[in-house]
Amino acid sequence: xxxxxxxxxxxxxxxxxxxxxxxxxxxxxxxxxxxxxxxxxxxxxxxxxxxxxxxxxxxxxxxxxxxxxxxxxxxxxxxxxxxxxxxxxxxxxxxxxxxxxxxxxxxxxxxxxxxxxxxxxxxxxxxxxxxxxxxxxxxxxxxxxxxxxxxxxxxxxxxxxxxxxxxxxxxxxxxxxxxxxxxxxxxxxxxxxxxxxxxxxxxxxxxxxxxxxxxxxxxxxxxxxxxxxxxxxxxxxxxxxxxxxxxxxxxxxxxxxxxxxxxxxxxxxxxxxxxxxxxxxxxxxxxxxxxxxxxxxxxxxxxxxxxxxxxxxxxxxxxxxxxxxxxxxxxxxxxxxxxxxxxxxxxxxxxxxxxxxxxxxxxxxxxxxxxxxxxxxxxxxxxxxxxxxxxxxxxxxxxxxxxxxxxx
Length: 408
Ligand SMILES: Cc1ncc(COP(=O)(O)O)c(C=O)c1O
Known about the structure:
Blueprint: H1 13-25, H2 35-46, E1 51-55, H3 60-68, E2 76-80, H4 86-93, E3 97-101, H5 112-118, E4 123-126, H6 138-148, E5 151-155, E6 163-164, E7 167-168, E8 175-179, E9 192-196, H7 199-209, H8 227-230, H9 249-259, H10 262-280, E10 286-288, E11 295-296, E12 301-306, H11 313-322, H12 339-350, H13 371-376, E13 380-384, H14 390-407
Parallel strand pairs: 2-3, 2-4, 4-5, 5-8
Antiparallel strand pairs: 1-9, 6-7, 6-11, 8-9, 10-12, 12-13
Helix pairs in contact: 1-9, 2-9, 3-4, 3-7, 10-14
The protein binds pyridoxal-5'-phosphate.
């Protein structure tokens, strides 16, 4: 790493300038200063695709991708057990069936063997998640997708500038989805972007994000139909069903400014990750997420697993905080164990006629479905990497070292 500044501002200085230009221009129905277009073009280019479609968050992006890919009632979409609930939720939201598969025991990303084992004639898509910042094993997944005509949507909400065998994560699937939510590397508070290269898919996603307006195009920033068209009383506006998921121009202005310093943001995350890593090398009972050769982890968070049975997760947290640490997070529940699934199973059992697309097709979501992740999940620590001053990261690492010594 070269040239990392010791400290960087929380918000890109350019964001103020870009937001001011939006405000100075004012708000008009079909004109703008072009921040959405600039964000869409530059983001797609930076992440190896042609088209970008800004969205109001990184869940909406995947709703659009699934709709654009034609995924609908009763279709199956494969998702990993270790993810934020957005990933299975979008599948249910288009009335399709989430098939939750187990993860690799060391990287905690989607297991390729499990994906292969769960493909059926009804499978339409796979959503591999770059969890904590680590890309999954994408080449064999793309090969499976090719063999079975599946669409791959990379969920890269947590992976900004991660790499997979020399390629930037996000450039490999048919679509990639990113989030600009407040904890993410590029943020404007809330927001997201979907990128892809196939023009038909891009146009379908654009329409999915904007109420299916007939005359929208894939041109960057084309999120509104022209006044000449829309003022006509006989103009038929909508030729397909879509959500309404646009990202406001002001938010695009902030996201653009953050994108323009993305290397610096990513390097700050890596700096913190290296600081945590140095500490745990002396403690064999805390095993970090494995980054295999040929991969670069973008470290949205730095995660490790407690392997000693006598150490209680909550005791580690309280000691860390007591010594001045910032705290850490536990992992989300395995996706299939969130009560929404058991409730859905019960609702379908009680009234199968109301859910014809799920009746007889929904798996029984329960413990035992993904034993690898179910065993590891309660023992995970997720440490912060969003320090904007290297001294803060170093100080926190020292506190972690003191904490761990108490348990040795
Ligand atoms: C892996 C993953 N997928 C999807 C999302 C959803 O993003 P958003 O909160 O912008 O909808 C997030 C972020 O919370 C995430 O971490």
